[in-house]
Amino acid sequence: xxxxxxxxxxxxxxxxxxxxxxxxxxxxxxxxxxxxxxxxxxxxxxxxxxxxxxxxxxxxxxxxxxxxxxxxxxxxxxxxxxxxxxxxxxxxxxxxxxxxxxxxxxxxxxxxxxxxxxxxxxxxxxxxxxxx
Length: 132
Description:
Layout: H1 4-7, H2 13-32, H3 38-57, H4 74-92, H5 96-117, H6 124-130
């Protein structure tokens, strides 16, 4: 395992990857920790900011080009910020069920499912974890 391929990657790829890794770790904490507390809200706001960074930075990543400079994965980059806003609105309106569903969907869809694809051969994270 070596961070060299990630640190040598062009453009916003390192920012995107480190924000996603941090969001994944904080997401696990959020699932395990008590809900509705000040730490939950604080970590939640940090997580939302990280997820916005992940989504926005992805628009400058064009390693896979299927539709012009974009790929279908960029649809998640539109989905995630919209869902983040809705999830925060649900929390502020005390609609806990909708908030939980939205945040869980973002976590699993935009981090877990999308993250699995970054470990395919030929991708930077594959080289980080498994070597060149």
